[in-house]
Amino acid sequence: MSGKTRIYAYRAIFLLAAMVFASGPVLSQQISILLKGGHVIDPKNNINSRMDVAIADGKILRVAKDIPASNARRVVDVTGMYVTPGLIDMHVHAFHGTEPGSYIADGWDALPPDGFTFRAGVTTVVDAGSAGWRNFRAFKSQTIDRSRTRILAFLNIVGTGMYGRFEEQDVTDMNPVMTSYMITRLFPEILVGVKSAHYWGPDFTQVDKAVEAGKIANVPVMVDLGEHHPPLPIEELFMKHLRPGDIWTHTYANAPQDREVPVDENGKVKPFIFEAQKRGIIFDVGHGGGAFHWKQAIPSVQQGFIADVISSDLHIGSMNSGMKDMANLLSKFLNMGLSLNDVILRATWNPAKVIKRTELGHLSEGAPADVAVFTLRKGDFGFLDVRGTKMKGTQKLEAELTIRDGRVVWDLNGIAAPMWDEVKPVSGR
């Protein structure tokens, strides 16, 4: 080979390598699922435009315009649909069981998540304190280890968790050391925070115990402050007892006999609410069966007080009433005036940051391939609060496709499936 020929050969090799490098990983790794033509909304990465999403080996391989389909095993046409990270529902009760006398800890009111998550675009849930350090192992083996939904959890400051309202008053069972040890030494990959709830006492004892555990374990605390007579002042809670990054749930509840509410009797958001949010207190919707009222939510949104996280508080008391599912809940906020980007932010990247699981809630290359595909329906719809009163709306999200770790787990209309008469018959079937 002459010198000139050798130079030409080297140049050709260099150009070929440059082309492969410039094309990204798609050319060098086979795509298992390619979502083509959808409108991608990924608030963490500031993406809000038409793009394709390539998935390989259970991870996000690439998000870009016009990814070639030639290297994909399965191409799904999602034209006209919205593609988002899999939703994170930061407040559910999933410790389902049949323990006699129990409320939510291994009780009938909690729900096995897989039947209620994927069909709404949810791939990750966070159990909100159903179990405490005494019974968390049972919750893990019974539900967490058996579920396809990713389940994380807040550990209740009460050792027996939400066994019953009476047991939740036992101050001697509120053990910050044991709670923090279980979080940091036994299950740090699952436990993301501490929960305080349903305390009848006349002070902040339970909250302070939970915050003590949160400080030791370096995790946030979620507080359901209520059932106090007279109600405790929430300004004191936000400014003196909670830390920036701690969470107040059931933001739009309206039970002034049990808890102070953000919107006063004149329909105005109390000024200290905005100051608490600026301070870093996280406000969580926690819709549930009794904690979402239009009387609180609509004036709050109109005046600029919007919860940081949208969550369902999924349990038997909420699933078939005003809440229904996360897609329906997100639709409520769309019809109150939030943009689709703002709604998705509050159910993906915001909760991921709050629970310090920043590998979730986005479509970055290399992230777990948890993806939701939604249709935004237009029409005349009605949305209920927990009292059964209605707000009318013109748009509604419907989950078309849900992917968890790169596998299709929900396909409403078979958009990811082949036609029945195009599949080659399997021998013997």
Write the layout of secondary structure elements.
Elements: H1 3-22, E1 33-36, E2 39-42, E3 47-50, E4 52-56, E5 59-64, E6 75-77, E7 82-85, E8 87-92, E9 122-132, H2 136-142, E10 150-156, H3 176-186, E11 191-197, H4 205-217, E12 221-224, H5 234-241, E13 247-248, H6 271-279, E14 282-283, H7 294-302, H8 316-319, H9 326-335, H10 340-345, H11 349-354, E15 371-384, E16 390-404, E17 407-411
Parallel strand pairs: 1-6, 2-7, 8-9, 9-10, 10-11, 11-12, 12-13, 13-14
Antiparallel strand pairs: 1-4, 2-3, 4-5, 7-15, 15-16, 16-17
Word description of this protein:
The chain is of the alpha/beta class. It has 2 domains: 1-27; 85-392, TIM Barrel. Helices cover 24% and strands 24% of the residues. The protein has 11 helices and 17 strands. It has helices at residues 3-22, 136-142, 176-186, 205-217, 234-241, 271-279, 294-302, 316-319, 326-335, 340-345, 349-354; strands at 33-36, 39-42, 47-50, 52-56, 59-64, 75-77, 82-85, 87-92, 122-132, 150-156, 191-197, 221-224, 247-248, 282-283, 371-384, 390-404, 407-411. It has a 7-stranded parallel sheet. Helix 3 packs parallel to helix 4 (205-217). The radius of gyration is 24 Å and the shape is globular. The chain starts with a helix and ends in an 18-residue tail after the last strand. 48% of the residues are buried.
